[in-house]
Amino acid sequence: xxxxxxxxxxxxxxxxxxxxxxxxxxxxxxxxxxxxxxxxxxxxxxxxxxxxxxxxxxxxxxxxxxxxxxxxxxxxxxxxxxxxxxxxxxxxxxxxxxxxxxxxxxxxxxxxxxxxxxxxxxxxxxxxxxxxxxxxxxxxxxxxxxxxxxxxxxx
Length: 155
Hints:
By secondary structure, the chain is mostly beta strands. Helix content is 12%, strand content 34%. The chain has 1 helix and 13 strands; from the N terminus they run H-E-E-E-E-E-E-E-E-E-E-E-E-E. The longest helix has 18 residues, at 2-19. The termini are far apart.
């Protein structure tokens, strides 16, 4: 019984930590973390249609080659390979982040490094050249929770 109470208390503490997290500025030139809305390639909100599937992240507008910042105090947990399609190699990069009780994936970011710690607001890397792969799209960082929950509330 005591182990169950301790486990419940630990989980409750984790929930409370996550609920208080608000992401800081993610991309240079977008201090309010404005999302990608609608363009010729679709929409950037969580759950948007992607043909036969749903979009599992939130797209935050970010011009190609802009600096990308840590949205909260993070530990870098390695590189992400976004696509298996070689035609998308120009944007086939991202980074795994952990911290504040969260696990987050950022797609289309060329990270400066893939391990260590970065404080909120410090540089993580650079937005990749999305226009080379998707001409006319609103260039963006794709923010996806590792548990595939909706990240919108953190913005």
